[in-house]
Amino acid sequence: MSEAPEDIGEHAYDHIAQWYLEWVESDMSPRQRYTKKLLNKLPPSPSVLELRCGPGVPLLNMLVDRGTHVTANDISAKQIEMAKARCPHVKFVAGNMATLTFEAESFHSALSFYTLFRLPRSQLKDLLAKMYRWIKPGGLFVFNLAGIDEEEFHGEMIGFELLKVENVKAGDGKLEEDEPDYESEFVWVMARKPDANKGEISEGWSQHV
């Protein structure tokens, strides 16, 4: 019997867990900068969701150190095991992020780096719609995508009013020049869910710097 795609993904991420830990510990990616931007805009003791948390460093530690109540997801059981050892106060939810379910307005904010672009476009749209429901009014969603230009990106975000967008070459992070994704361009986004209680009437996301 052939494996389901999500099972293949889990096994693959289990296999590279140690390599990935070493990579993120030395990575100079913009995700730390964007996480700091997010933290500076959150209320006291906020609830935050991270999709595909990996081994827990550096972002979970950054969030926990600022007093956030973190729920973290990853498809890899091995990555979750490593993250639990480093961040015991985080609530972990294992599994495919495309099948997650939470109550509406469960989180003040959410973040997801280097993972959403792995979803088929139909699943990406569905997940973005879920994120909109899960985040509280006025909350933020910070994420990045690869292999998509800004015009195409806006076209994919049906129903969204967008966004702060920054294009960053993958090589500006940890990738070496001889790696195949070195010239890939990532779109980094910080989005805000409008707050109807403050008269912000919209069915999508608004620009937030």
Automatic annotation (TrEMBL):
Pfam families: Methyltransf_25 (PF13649). InterPro entries: Methyltransf_25, SAM-dependent_MTases_sf. It comes from Stemphylium lycopersici (Tomato gray leaf spot disease fungus). This is O-methyltransferase. It comes from the Eukaryota. Signal peptide: none annotated. Keywords: Methyltransferase, Transferase. GO terms for biological process: methylation. GO terms for molecular function: methyltransferase activity.
